[in-house]
Amino acid sequence: MSYINRRAFVKQGSSALALAVLTDKGSNRYLNAQEISGDAHEISSNSQSILNEGLNAARQAGAQYTDMMYRVTRSEDWNFTASSVTSPKSAIVVGAGIRALYNGYWGFAGSDEVINAQLSRRLGTEAAEQARSGSYGTRRRIDLAPTSVVGNGHWTMPVEIDPFSVSDGEKIDFISTVIDYINRERVGGSVLYVQPSFTRTESAFASTEGSFFTQTTYCTECPISVQTERHFISGEQGGARADFATPAGAGWEYLLRAPFQDKAFQLMEHAARSRHGKPVDVGRYDVVFDAYSMAAILDATIAPATELDRVFGYESNNTGTSFINKPLDMLGSYRIGSPLINVSSNRTIKGGAATVKWDDEGVVPKEAQLLKEGVLADFQTTRESANWIASYYRHLGQPVQSGGCAWRQKGSAPPTHCPPNFILHPGNENTTFEDLIADTKRGIAVVGGRVSSDSQALNGSGQGLLYEIRDGKLGEVILGASYIYRTPEFWKNVVALGGSNSIGSFGFYRGRESGISQESPAHTISSVPAKVTGIAIVDTLRKA
Amino acid sequence: MRADISFLTEGDCRSLFSKIESLCAGGGKTSVLLDGRWSRVTTWGNSELRLNHETNDIRLNISREIRGARGSAITNRLDDKGISEAVRVAEKLLHGQGEKWENIDERYIDKPILKPTLWSDQTYKLGADDRTGITTKVMEPAIQHGLLSTGKLDISAECHAIVNSDGMFRYYPVTDVQCSVTVRNKNGTGSGWAGRHDYDLAKIDIGELANRATQKCIRAQDPVTVEPGRYTVVLEPQAVADLFTPVVASPSNNGISENSGFQRYIAEDGKGPFASKRPGYSKIGELVWDRRINLTADPMDPDAGFVPFRRYDGEPYRPVKWVDQGVLRELSYDKIYAIGTMGSSDPLINSLSYRLSVEGITTSIEDMIAATERGILVTRFSNVRKVDSDSVLCTGYTRDGLWLIENGKLSKPVKNFRFTESPIFILNNVDAVGQAERVFSPPFARIAPALKVRDFSFTGLVDSV
Q1: A chain contacts of residue B49, beta-carbon cutoff 8 Å
Q2: Are B445 and B307 in contact (CB under 8 A)?
Q3: Most buried of the four, A157, B71, B137, B178, by CB within 10 Å?
Q4: What is the ipTM of this complex?
Q5: β A224-230/A237-241 pair status
Q6: Is the dihedral of CA B87, B91, B93, B99 positive or negative?
Q7: Residue of B291, B81, B387, B46 lying closest to B188 (CA atoms)
Q8: Mean of the pLDDT values across residues B337-346?
């Protein structure tokens, strides 16, 4: 079997088929698989000399450090419902940008164009001019944390099947099969939205420190959401969103292997059950959160609170500040969570949506221990911000180096911060979500909870599918409830964590720009379920 | 194409379209959307300039249609190879679709668009040195008081063009100035904010903006705790707009789109805040909020003008009075609804920009405070999230300056609250209305008045600053 046949999919399961497709080297593949969206790869072999023209132009105009990125991003976003597929949104974005440092001030110039020597020189001169223009104020100095020179690097994210080499026909056939399968489980008149999306990003980077590399990364996802019709008693319209096939650093094989069949029933049941339940009994409870809910809370609390530029106030006019407001005093001593809580960040895990070999300023990202047994131990940094806590690193005998969180939204945008991949490390015993529930006499279970925090990542509230727990068993669904948290109290009240047999990985988008059409970067959070005591459960719609 | 693309002119758009049309094969219709933004931005943080940057952003969307089958491709390459690849992708995608007779529009009749003034030559000519000078001016009051100023100054120019093979040609250049600043004290116990957005820098009083943010920070330092509950509130125009916007617009996967509750057929279906109790009807003709308040939108608005056509299809925005002295007059509808119910094929579309204006006597914020025995003054709301579609009940937080009003005076700064309140509710509980003012809500042009409102619901205490 060398292509996905609907009957076989239903009988054998998608993973068996995926294996068949992957091992058959394509003799019977859909026709015209190669004749897809244009050139396979965009960055040509003479890009290094073109980038160097830009660096030289900036240097001649007086810049003391310069780096340049040329990036081509290809993306394809599909929109399927049970009855239709519209043609995908197919986009290609090219752009180049140069960043220059002059007397401690940054300048940047960028343009959405295919790179050539003339453009490169113009951007180089312009970037230096921008920096110079800002530098007439107070004299200052910016030290970038050292990073090793990348001599002539090339890295491609290891994916098994480039999604852009898969024909439209095959994609449509596979996704339609998945939809037909999921729809068999549907309850009444429900509407299913399946929106697979693929991105391939190719970049070329050069800096006046002598680094040059090309890098190709992928991001693939297939968000699935269900909206059920209004329940005949409660009048509530329920819904659910899949917590699988979330954004990942992977190719087409990620969808072939996604657990559509295993989770279809659960997704539909979740949607149907979210419409009918008992009203909330306001109070404080022991709450068992599933792995997805814990990942979402991490992404809204510890993750933004440990972005070092945000901590130092540079984002106060944008996404906000952090409750970790005395970073140098708090490192190594400020307790944010119980001793069970270990949170680390990385950009290396296989399949991580934020995984790269080098970040967008040429740094090999390090693995950072953000919370060690509940105590603040590190921050997410870039070359410039790592130096702000240099004394801490030196005190620990660690090198002062960037965490590798620099990111450019596109080639013509200046570098900013992106969240790396995070890991909420599992507990020592083999505990699952079901075990945590069985161990709770009276409490609440939260499945698929989504949260949002305030501007200091300190207070927040969340909603999801809430169940009552009575005597270790799941009881009725509770409607109209939210859980409220205050970040340090939440994490300090974690009394039990799932074990390594309960790990889930989920992709999230979170960027700095709010508003229209700003591409946010994706990152992967690997987490486990947890039991947290003393959580306030309130009625969402109740006013004061 | 000019080799140096700094800003696309009308002529550039026309010749680009001819080139694209000449590359198309198979007949049918071609439609091209071009959005360009020449961004010139200065950011500063902690009272020091951070980055000066200038970028050209381009986005070209080529759409092909043959007997209803459609395909489109997005690129930002304007060179020959890039354009021909995009045309080829659009045509490949279109050939993957079947013919859809329901997609075929009737014979195209060009509808005129209004021509608001959204371009300022003076603003267009400003460069990095000018921005640095303005930034220095914005930081000054904060520096004088030993405070930390962080913000962004964006002086850009954009062009929006739609050209199609039926003869539609729309090209609209605009200049766009955004300046927002947050001032905090070194202890992190006080934060003040101010922001302005307009097409012409001359319409923005930079000194006033800087002073306002700085003074708010100074007066908001070391706030005290006050119990949450129901309060009389004096809401500054920014706060009113922050809370009102979910009635009209909501965040979606692709950015911001219209709140479906604002659509006529959704309201007639019994959903959203404007559904009538009578099945099959909306509240059009009924009183929905205080008689002193109007909701209108007009591309020619002298203070809040906007690009006069919808970006993705060129449909013109007409001036519309959504709510007239508290009575709902119009809700938005698309072409299909128009043909079925209104007897014409002109939709009434929502630009997401609005003017919430007032009739009758207005009161200044100072006078509203003076007339309040006990209340709270709110600068703005943040993280506003709708939790119920039918009542537009929202939750979120206050931010950047909150004060207790006692016996007609601002007595002390208080810690931030979480609120659970509905904009429809507050517009029905208005004690006093103020002058309408342009608020900071890019890329939309919005105007809102200050309001004094009874029984505003603060449901929790947050100790964030």
Answers
A1: 105, 134, 137
A2: no
A3: B71
A4: 0.93
A5: antiparallel
A6: positive
A7: B46
A8: 89
Q: What is the pLDDT of residue A26?
A: 36
Nearest chain B residue to A102 by CA: give it. Answer: B51
Which residues of chain A lie closer than 8 angstroms to B182, CB-CB? 316-317
Rg (CA), chain A: 25
| Among candidate residues A443, A431, A439, the one with its CA nearest the CA of residue A472 | A439
Give B86→chain A minimum CA distance, Å.
Answer: 8
Q: Which of B210, B220, B52, B51 shows the shortest CA–CA distance to B144?
A: B210
Beta carbons of A134 and B228 less than 8 Å apart = no
Does the distance separating the beta carbons of B5 and A113 come in below 8 Å? yes
> Per-residue DSSP letters for B251-294?
EETTEEEE-GGGBHHHHHTT-STTB-SSTT-BSTTSB-S-TTEE
Q: What is the mean pLDDT of residues A81-100?
A: 89
A308 contacts A465 by C-beta, under 8 angstroms: no
Q: Which amino acid is at A319?
A: T
Q: What is the pLDDT of residues B422-434, one digit of tens each?
A: 999 999 999 999 9
CA–CA–CA angle A294, A300, A303 (5° rounding): 95
Within 10 angstroms of residue B373's Cβ, the number of other Cβ atoms is 9
A vs B: CB pairs below 8 A: 218
SS3 B249: strand
Which of A378, A375, A351 minimizes the C-alpha distance to A367? Answer: A378
CB contact under 8 A, A137 and B49: yes
For residue range B381-425, list pLDDT tens digits in order: 999 999 999 999 999 999 999 999 999 999 999 999 999 999 999
Closest CA of chain B from A323, distance in Å: 7
Position B188 scores a pLDDT of 93
For B74, which residue in chain A has the nearest alpha carbon?
Answer: A91
H/E element, A218: strand A212-221
Task: Note whether B376 and A442 are within 8 A (CB).
Answer: no
- Which of A498, A254, A213, A222 shows the shortest CA–CA distance to A352? A254
CA distances (Å), A382 to each of A209, A275, A526, A538, B136, in order?
16, 45, 22, 39, 26
- What are the Cα distances from residue A430, in Å, to A93, A325, A422, A433? 46, 36, 21, 10
Contact assessment for residue A420 and residue A345, using Cβ atoms and an 8 Å cutoff:
yes
Cα gap A426→A494, rounded to integer Å: 12
What's the angle, vertex CA B72, arms to CA A218 and CA B157, rounded to 5? Answer: 85
- Does residue B248 contact residue B352 with C-beta atoms inside 8 Å? yes
Least confident range from A8-22, A485-499, B71-85: namely A8-22
Is there a cis peptide before residue B251, judged by omega within 30 degrees of 0?
no
Query: Closest-CA residue in chain B for A73?
Result: B75
Helix (H, G, I), strand (E, B) or coil at A403: coil
The minimum CA-CA distance between B387 and chain A, rounded to whole Å, is 7
- List strand residue ranges (DSSP E) for A455-529, in order: 459-470, 473-479, 481-486, 494-497, 504-509, 522-527
Question: Quick count: other Cβ atoms within 10 Å of Cβ B251?
Answer: 17
Instruction: Find the CB nearest B74 among A91, A126, A544.
Output: A91
Of B70, B443, B459, the CB nearest to A87: B70
Probe site for chain A from B39, B46, B51, B463 (most A CB atoms < 10 A): B51
Chain B residues 69-98 with CB within 8 Å of chain A: 70-79, 81-82, 85-86, 88-89, 92-94, 96-97
- Report the pLDDT averaged over residues A260-285: 90
Tell me, yes or no, if B19 comes closer than 8 A to chain A by beta carbon: no
Write the residue in A106, A137, A169 that is nearest to B51 by C-beta: A106
Distance from B144 to chain A by nearest Cα, in Å? 15
Residue carrying the six token digits 């007066």: B219
Q: Taking CB atoms and an 8 Å cutoff, what residues of chain A touch B462?
A: 454, 458-459
